[in-house]
Amino acid sequence: MIRVLLPSHLRALAQIDGEVTLDLAGPVTSCSVLDALEARYPALRGTIRGHDRGPRRAFIRFFACEQDLSHSDPHAPLPEPVASGAEPYLIIAAMAGG
Amino acid sequence: MSRVRVLVGTRKGAFVLSADGARESWEISGPHFAGWEVYHLKGSPVNPDRLFASQCSGWSGQVIQRSDDGGTTWEPTGNRFSYEGTPGTHQWYDGTPHPWEFERVWHLEPSLDDPDLVYAGVEDAGLFKSADGGQTWEELPGLRGHSSGPSWQPGAGGMCLHTIILDPVRPGRMFAAISAAGAFRSDDSGQSWRPVNRGLRSEGIPDPDAEVGHCVHRLAMHPSRPDVLYMQKHWDVMRSDDAGESWHEVSGNLPTDFGFPIDVHAHEPDTIYVVPITSDAHHFPPEGRLRVYRSRTGGDEWEPLTSGLPQQHCYVNVLRDAMAIDSLDSCGIYFGTTGGQVYASRDAGDSWAPIVRDLPAVLSVEVQTLP
Fold it and tell me: Which of these, A22, A76, A95, B50, could form a disulfide with A36 (CB 3.0-4.6 Å)?
């Protein structure tokens, strides 16, 4: 089970209350997490990354286990605590705008 | 008794203001989509309970919302806006070629006769349409693909397609306006386009009467007389009597002919409204006095409308899509300001009162007249 936390503006958009939990069949990567997230909540398509697995939006960040994974290979395995559900995968609205 | 519903897009959400035909007591709902910029909302003329809204944010880009109950509840629809084919380039601020990149939807224009058909004017300038109520979008590439397209250059607000007008008499005729390319007309439902800017003169471009490159801020038409168009240009208020084939200036005695919105009285096709703004550098009313100007002669002769509007220390702006007119017998005029006020007049502009005073900066105002 993967735990995902979204920023408040995306929780409101997709009408999500609290943390999202996802069950992934294959490798746990940033890309596979987002695939599963967008499949369950189609309203999120295009708001975290471009359509069709496009690039991460400039002011969205991915954090986990106190690491910034925003610039990591989206197909690289996520840290084991994320894959096991011990730690959440954090989708962050970047500090922007002053 | 008839009702009105005013749809307000702001920098931080949308608001729906409702009243009965007396327009004295208002019910305010919102913010909808709190925290998001809402560039525009508009209702279907066929099914007034169907509304479309464009919301966007720097974090998460573009979202389109649709309501089928007059704005009480909303559902996100499709937000994939992909230019047709290889997009090519337009001019960047420094004169270099710059790839067309979708930024946001500025304006939504529902069809006059099909509740599932809606057009979207976007930045970078392009025209899209959805035939399924906003679920999927396809570009009408004939506009962006016009031979002048590679020479279009953004204005200070971005290269936006901000005005879409559907001719209610001639099927297939539509108008669009782009900052800073100019006005365009299609006679085949948006498949092909040509510039309609003859008579415009803009000192800010190398060739002042060029075919394209004019910073048109807004177009307006009265549905009973679709060959007459009014335009608020960057500078100059203009009029065309031949569906855009030629334009002549009707700024007349305005205190300044810079401004953004222009609109037409619901029952008097020669009565038009503008909000003069000091200049492109000073985006506020002259002398700090907020005045709507009305012409009952289709331009040239203008009178200031001040009753109920602040006449000192007022330094707000009124943006291009932020004025609307209802169709009740005593015509109602509405406009919103960058200071968050939405003003209404129940008597065609003779007197004004704020409906709300402290919204986020207002980006757009539309009104629906309901049975």
Answer: A22
Quote the distance between the C-alpha of residue A92 and its chain's center: 8
Q: What is the ipTM of this complex?
A: 0.93
pLDDT in tens, B168-182: 999 999 999 999 899
Q: A51 — contact with chain B (CB < 8 Å)?
A: yes
Calpha distance B124→B87 (Å, rounded): 11
| Full-model pTM | 0.97
Query: A13 and B60: CB-CB below 8 Å?
Result: yes
Contact call for A94 and B76, based on CB within 8 A: no
CATH number for position B81: 2.130.10.10
Q: Is residue B364 assigned to a domain?
A: no
Report the gap between the CA of A16 and the closest CA in chain B (Å).
14
At the second CATH level, the architecture of A2-93 is Roll (3.10)
Residue B159: domain span: 36-325+341-349
CA distances from B157 to B149, B154, B214, B320, B346 (A): 18, 7, 14, 11, 32
Tell me whether residues B60 and A96 touch, CB distance under 8 A: no
